[in-house]
Amino acid sequence: MDDLGTLMREAVDHVDPMPRQRELWDGVNLATRRRSRNRLVGGLVAAAVLVTGGAVAAHQSSGSEPQPAGPPHAIDRGSSRAVYGIYYAGQTPTGTRLYREFRAGQEKEKTLADALDLVEATPTDPDYVTYWSDGQLLGATVTNGVIVVDVDPALTRPGLGGPDAELAIQQLVYTVQGVVGDRLPVQFVHDGSPVPEVFGVRTRKPVTDLPELDVLSLVSISDPSERRVVDGYFSAQGKASSFEGNVPWQLLDANGSVVRSGHAQSYGYEGHLYPWATGHIDVTGLAPGDYTFKVMTDDPSGGEGPGPYVDTRTIIIK
Amino acid sequence: MTTPTLIVREVLLDADSALEELYVAHWRGLVRLAVLLLRDQGAAEEVVQDSFVAMHLRWRSLRDPDKALAYLRQSVVNRSRSALRHRGVVDRYVASQPPVLSPAEAADAPALAHDRRDAILDALRALPTRQREVLVLRHYLELSETEIAETLGISRGSVKAHASRGTAALRALLAGAHNGKDL
Predict the structure, then answer these.
(1) What domain range includes position A290?
(2) Is the CB of residue B35 less than 8 Å away from at least one CB of chain A?
(3) If we measure between CA atoms, which residue out of A169, A165, A149, A157 comes closest to residue A196?
(4) B172 touches chain A (CB under 8 A)
């Protein structure tokens, strides 16, 4: 480590920026809307050309947008370790579903191997569990557009399984798809050959992800992480599919009394989960100690339906 | 005919997740990078926020978190340079800065760490923009010459030249500060 690098790191070590998730999503929302509008106009023009017989031109114009110059490849040499969105199982009003927890891996670079270790590890949030235990997931690679996962042959015996077997498979599928950043199919193998079943679920062919609304909790918290220490303020973000994009949240003290509450907004709610963020939550004036941050889906049925989906995190106010 | 809405939704999905993950992993680090380039933390946060929004829009062509991180860094460097061109930032900076390198003032300053921070940030600010960028990418991010050249869109030869001149200038500035106080 060179001296100038050390001096520079020292100079900014104390910089702890304000969280800005809400502003970030507002910016994205604005930019995305602007772009969708432009695309819609493009689509109408394309349709008009098609009607007047210019089919070839219409086809060429669909979905084309200026491609920015590719950025250079650079290796992450930041001081932080790679962060993974790992899916774990937890209870919801409609049975067990998957929640996502952000975990740091061992390496600076993101690797599938690191992610598999985290799938087998105990979740940080005590409300979650994992279906996979140590040594069951032996490795993973991406080959020809398929994520190939090597599993312990003991898992492939016929007759295993249970009510959550399908969800266990989806836990892994969602996690590895997240790591590669693409919804690629997942092939389970051992010694290079596809295995006929895992946990009793048929796996001879590659497995794909089931729809989010069937598999995931309809609300989950990405940040703060469990037992995060908070000083003065914090903000929260996550994903939800909640009626009209309304995501109510509460901060509860150790006695379960609500000490802060509000609503976050996601910019959509149909078809899949959308990001929500709270903006700054001021906690000055609250006594130091453990608090529970709770988010819910909005429940317009007034209690007649299964009830709201909920996710919680413990935070520690300094 | 294709169904564009479906395609848009699929791409957005990935872009949202990517943004969320990259935010959790790199928000703080990128703001620190921008502080080294800009000095002003508020402006640094703005620059990084805009870079994240731009990354989200470009996700279709990035698709890979490593590429996205490289794009974010490039965007932070470019946007920091633009921000510095706006006199407002410079004026705010000048107005908010006491003459930190003044030996008399430094002699009885209580916090040594604070002085060291100010000294390096002041020295970086005093460098020409390209030299500052090259030095920060090289020493703070530990990028290779090739990576710096790609990030800044300049030749490797230029990187070498800026690095060598910048290092000499930075050491001279720091030595000046050192004479005034115990760096």
Answers:
(1) 220-317
(2) yes
(3) A157
(4) no
